Amino acid sequence: MGNKNIAFRALTIASVVIGSTPVVALAEEERSGISLLIPTMAEFIPACVAFLIIFVIMSKFAWPMVVEMMDARENKIKGDLDSAEQSKLAAAENERTSAAKISDAQREADEIIAAARREAEKERAQIIAQAQQDFADIVAKGHEAVESERKRALVDLSGSVVDLSVEIASKIIGDGMDETTQRALAEKYLAEVGSLNG
Hints:
198 residues; mainly alpha; 86% helix; rod-shaped
């Protein structure tokens, strides 16, 4: 801030010096042609003095500030470029780690799905085996029930046949044989018929 004030004061002084130098050219008569481009000594010396004063002031105060600002700007641009490069490298690293994590997650998901399929297949096999066992048990119980019913029906039937046979025999033979003998004879006959059929 101090350098800026000094530079401003120096420029003000230089302006005053230039403004206070006598301009002899106005007093001279008008020039024409090439002589318009060539300055007179009365104009040249004050202009050189003013130029030198402004040059010294600028090189002493203003130019270092300009160089400092340019260096700061250059450093900022370099810093921004370095920061952008670091961000780019970090983004690439994040992309690689994200891709690796996605790959790991996909692999884990595949393993979970495979394990679930194996477990479902195992459960299915157990359910099928249990259903087949239950079916076999039901069929076996059904065979047992049918066999039991058949035996009971045969017992009932043989009892009825014996009673019927005794009744028929008593009608055919008459009263010559008692009922106990007739029953024993009918049961013996049924046993022989049953052994032939079996």
